[in-house]
């Protein structure tokens, strides 16, 4: 069965809570200590004795095959992690406290290895994940799997340095029986083995395990060309181009075209910069990277709610809800997730009363949802709190829009009817997503309204192989007296089909569908192709003229159509976006647009905010119009100044088609007239 794309909650992995039987002891070596007859440090004479050999043979067996205790099976790597992992802290050298979260993570790692799957792990801060992967995956494989090769790619050099430091500390504190001699002595590669002299030459011996440690911040090819059992992506959100890194590295995990190794992709979201946008994309497209997902929200590993663990003989955790059901010995290492969440929410309410910065930091460190993990806390341009709040609303209301295909209405000969008409068809699962348009369910165009909509286009002129930028179009509502929400995106395109002409045609169809006569404004840069497409289709009437309101008094621009986003006009566009987001953010229901607005930076070169730019251009066009939306059907029926139509009778005389009738209630019947 192919499990790619699933979350661990939907997989055949032991689910929480892990209820223990009496006698549960995951770390007998730590609790009981190494007996004197096997302790080669304090008693060197024991080396080579049967007792010494028997003890360490048993420990090796447990590390490789696992260990059963208190009704719970511990995978070998987890037994090694709990019993032979020492960490240097400000309080001294410590060993891990047992927690169900890390045991669950060990189960997930084993599942990934058994099924040749990658693991994506968006997480809270300070969850002990780095330490777990350093010891239970990389260090474990290095010592116990012959010919093992691991790649560690860090988002920043500081993370790579920290990983190396932890490996060295772990090595220095490890029992002699599990230590391996190292052949390499540099900071980027660690190779186990030893050298013997054979026939006068140095010959390398040993299990030849190897660890490559690299910084992948802006170099996606750092592990390309290697063969690897495991790849650890340390803080993937700090990679500048993670998608490229994955593409360059995935072959290192394959044998004969079949994946045999595992890539572990973990990190926090934080500010959605280039790297974390890629990480977020991976999270939302698990099947593309052959991965399952384990989300570590703020409730996990949250003290004091992972009760039962002890330090210096004292219980350091409590489980108020689980304790109502289970006995204390059954709850060793259990996490009371309900109590933890309640605790976090209380902390948030208190912090809301104080400094905003502290509240946002707490939110970032203790996210309660996947969306909060990737929530941007600060923005260069827009009200990030309003954007975050609307992002939550979008998650609750997931069915606000659907994917559609727009097709031309044709006659019996297959020719487009004149005037042009469009029919909308719900997209099928088999349809190419790059050729689909997103439309709000309740806001397909109403033809009775004129100038109700404006649109912005951020185009491109080169096909996919040449440029990475997406093409985008955004249709928004304008201020009106008809009860339709203002500045609301009702239809969006954000795509890059196989050919640019497909994108051009999608934009044209959307212009016709929403009757955007004179109301389709685009960025003049990279626009020659799409403007010519409108021209060749005899649809120039849909293009908006150059918006004079967004030009300086000394402007020397002379082009007829569309806007030049320059040092003068772009800040004005951003100002319009700021006002709209402040007043009408609640009217934005497309998640990609919300994400891009949260990431928007007007001065960032090469920023990937195509849809956000299209939204801003649509606002520019709406502001530039000197006419308000009108209801043509109402006006035709109620305009008291209408003279009616005329026709020629059979005698050749011109006679009126109707009589003018004075309205009974002029004050109400004229409402909206002339707007």
The whole-angstrom Rg is 33 Å
Mean pLDDT: 85
CATH class of the largest domain: Alpha Beta
Tally of DSSP helical segments? 19
Structural class: alpha+beta
Gross morphology? elongated
Query: How many E strands?
Result: 28
What does this structure look like?
By secondary structure, the chain is α+β, with helices and mostly antiparallel strands. The protein folds into 3 domains: 8-23 and 70-303, P-loop containing nucleotide triphosphate hydrolases (Rossmann fold); 401-593 and 604-624, Nucleotidyltransferase, domain 5 (2-Layer Sandwich); 637-669, no CATH class. It is built from 19 helices and 28 strands. The two termini are 61 Å apart. The strands form 9 sheets. Strands 7-10-6-11-14-5-15 form a 7-stranded mixed beta sheet, sandwiched between helices. Strands 19-18-20-24-23-22-25 form a 7-stranded mixed beta sheet. A hairpin with a 5-residue loop joins β27 (646-648) and β28 (654-656). Helix content is 32%, strand content 17%. The radius of gyration is 33 Å and the shape is elongated. α2 (50-65) packs across α3 (76-84) and α3 packs across α5. The model is unreliable at 640-644 and 658-675 (pLDDT under 50). The longest helix is centred in the N-terminal third of the chain and has 17 residues, at 157-173.
